[in-house]
Design goal:
single chain; about 625 residues; mainly alpha; two-stranded antiparallel ribbon; 2 strands
Length: about 625
């Protein structure tokens, strides 16, 4: 075993955990920005250590390795080692978590300045980072599940961080409960996984899976149950509604959840389980259908949202749908590539939105913004870079990853390609709608807010600039051969995946140029339409969505999915809980407890008569007792 790898792996996990402990137990003694500095430094050190692993892999001095630190659980036939998997996939994920996470931590120092519970905030952020690192570095499903539940707990704590607002508490509970629904399926899948393979270890399961024929029904069931967990964690239909509501937390939390942690966990888990999913064509088809439908469905909702953070939230759901789409097509490395560049531009979009919200004293309605281009020039430029990246405009990072997905879709299923192009065009429109309404035209907010608009402090702007650079140039890590590249990222990940469809697009260059040209021309037209609508015509979304035409009103109401869930689940369970409370607690439990009290009081009234101070009564009782005991013993013998 490589001793250096052991030490580095332990330290990568140790520093965020140490930051959590320091801020938890010494937080009240930390003055000023010290809690944020400690939290940020701990993540930075982990990033440097992960980067060392990355360099070792690139130079060939380090290789994929499973590192064991003894047994975690040893009970009967169940043997679960405390082991970690260090390979290109886990290192890629850890670079994203610690790299983007560090920038979000630094940004948070400025954003959360003055908050009375700032040390608690940074403690939870560090714990979130630790849990996600544990998830992606685990070498078996049970340890992965520990990190999986850890990020679920941290999301609850951070979404409801400002707990004095009941809406925030509701959003936190909603995220927690909806994730538990998916996690139940995940847990059942793990049980069946152990029944089938007798182990939770990736290495053991992948080695045994080689001998199983594709289409095996138990493998399909296991894959679908694992998919249920991924649907909950990565906010896909039908368990997606928690993610837009998760915007209740501080904006850096939104960036961390959407870009570097939590929602990427489902994508990672399916990619890590490629040796199972390629044995189940049915499961891959389900992944493809869910991803495609979610990508279009969530993007359409984003068209009519006016809360800047909720627009970005629905864009995350949609982009996760594109990642699921790639997974369903068997293009695992393509999905991870889009996950990687998405982390850059989505973190930038949320932090850029946070910069706007911070300047406007908490205002999130884009109808009350406008004209910020001149007043916040740095924020505008970085937000523009992120918008171009997520829209798939070359040479920004999103162009390369989306082009890979579209190429895969065109080759395997033209209908999916049409749907993917449609989702990309909708994304482009609502993102430029957001950009134009926020930064162009005249300011539409209150005058006293206008007079106080200012650019964010440099401690918030520097992370934005770094993320903007990655959003612009991030796609260069996987330049396709069409542009003279050699798909370095796909080659880096290739040893991880059993499915070797990670490099060859199976399309000649003329076909690829054609489909790329079609999508680019359509994107340019969409950008022009958005410009004409919201800059030239200066059209502002209506305040009352009930005045919208029928179909637009349905979309603006988010297809009434929240209302449907409330009708089907919340109201019945609320009614049931109230009835159970009225019957079980008030009538049964309360009466039982009160009856015991009444019996005690009643019996006490009669028993206390014996204690009346009459010596003759005491002597009589004593003699009577002796006689009774004597006769009992006599009868017994």
């Amino acid at each position: 075993m490589n001793c250096i790898m052991e030490i580095i792996t332990v330290l990568i996990l140790f520093f965020p955990l140490a930051g959590f402990l320091v801020n938890s137990f010494a937080g009240k003694r930390l003055k000023g920005n010290l809690s944020g500095i400690i939290a940020s430094t701990s993540v930075l050190i982990s990033f440097v250590l992960v980067f060392v692993l990355f360099i070792r892999m690139l130079t060939g001095t380090g290789s994929s390795e499973t590192i064991s630190f003894g047994n975690w659980i040893n009970a009967g036939n169940l043997l679960v080692p405390f082991e970690f998997r260090i390979d290109p996939l886990s290192v890629t994920m850890m670079l994203i978590i610690t790299g983007v996470g560090f920038l979000i931590h630094v940004y948070s120092i400025g954003y959360m300045k003055g908050d009375e519970r700032i040390s608690v905030f940074f403690a939870n952020m560090n714990l979130f980072t630790f849990a996600m690192l544990l998830l992606v570095s685990a070498a078996n499903y049970l340890l992965l599940f520990a990190g999986w539940e850890g990020v679920g707990l941290c999301s609850y704590l951070l979404i409801g961080f400002w707990f004095k607002n009941d809406d925030n508490n509701y959003a936190a509970r909603k995220a927690f409960v909806m994730n538990r629904i998916g996690d139940l399926g995940f847990l059942l899948g793990l049980i069946l996984l152990f029944v089938q393979f007798g182990s939770f270890s990736y290495d053991v399961i992948s080695a045994k899976a080689v001998y199983i024929l594709p289409g095996n029904m138990l493998i399909t069931l296991i894959s679908l149950l694992l998919l249920a967990g991924a649907i909950g964690k990565s906010a896909q239909i039908p368990l997606y509604t928690w993610l837009p509501d998760a915007m209740a937390g501080p904006t850096p939390v939104s960036a961390l959840i959407h870009a570097a942690t939590m929602v990427t966990a489902g994508i990672y888990m399916i990619a890590r389980s490629d040796f199972l999913f390629i044995l189940s064509p049915l499961a891959l088809i389900v992944v493809l259908i869910i991803g495609t439908f979610t990508a279009i469905f969530a993007a359409s909702i984003g068209l009519f949202q006016n809360d800047i953070k909720k627009i970005l939230a629905y864009s995350t759901v949609s982009q996760l749908g594109f990642m699921f789409m790639a997974l369903g097509l068997g293009a695992f490395s393509t999905s991870v590539f889009h996950l990687t560049v998405h982390a850059f531009f989505k973190a930038l979009l949320f932090l850029g939105a946070g910069s706007v919200i911070h300047s406007l004293h908490g205002e999130q309605d884009i109808r009350k913004m406008g004209g910020l281009k001149k007043m916040m020039p740095v924020t505008f430029l970085v937000f523009l870079a992120a918008t171009l990246a997520i829209s798939g405009i070359p040479p920004f990072s999103g162009f390369f990853s989306k082009d890979e997905i579209l190429t895969r879709a065109f080759h395997q299923n033209p209908a999916i390609w049409v749907a993917a192009v449609g989702g990309a065009l909708i994304t482009c429109f609502y993102m430029f709608r957001l950009l134009y309404l926020t930064f162009y035209g005249n300011f539409r907010g209150k005058e006293h807010v206008r007079s106080e608009i200012h650019e964010s402090p440099w401690i918030m702007l520097v992370p934005l600039i770094f993320l903007a650079l990655f959003s612009v140039a991030g796609g260069l890590i996987n330049i396709p051969e069409l542009f003279g590249g050699n798909v370095l990222f796909s080659k880096f990940l290739q040893p991880v995946f059993i499915n070797k469809q990670t490099i060859d697009n199976h399309l000649d260059k003329y076909s690829e140029i054609l489909i790329m040209s079609i999508s680019l021309i359509a994107l340019v037209l969409i950008i022009y339409l958005a410009y004409r609508e919201y800059v030239q015509k200066q059209r502002i979304p209506v305040n009352d969505i009930n005045t919208l035409p029928f179909f637009k009103r349905i979309i603006a109401r988010k297809y009434y999915i929240d209302e449907l869930y409330e009708l089907l689940f919340e109201i019945p369970f609320r009614w049931l809980s109230e009835k159970l409370f009225a019957i079980a607690e008030l009538k049964v439990i309360d009466n039982a407890v009160e009856s015991i009290g009444r019996i005690s009081l009643l019996s006490g009234r009669y028993i206390n008569r014996i204690q009346n101070g009459n010596i003759r009564l005491y002597l009589f009782a004593m003699v009577a007792g002796i006689i009774i005991i004597f006769f009992i013993n006599l009868i017994a013998f």
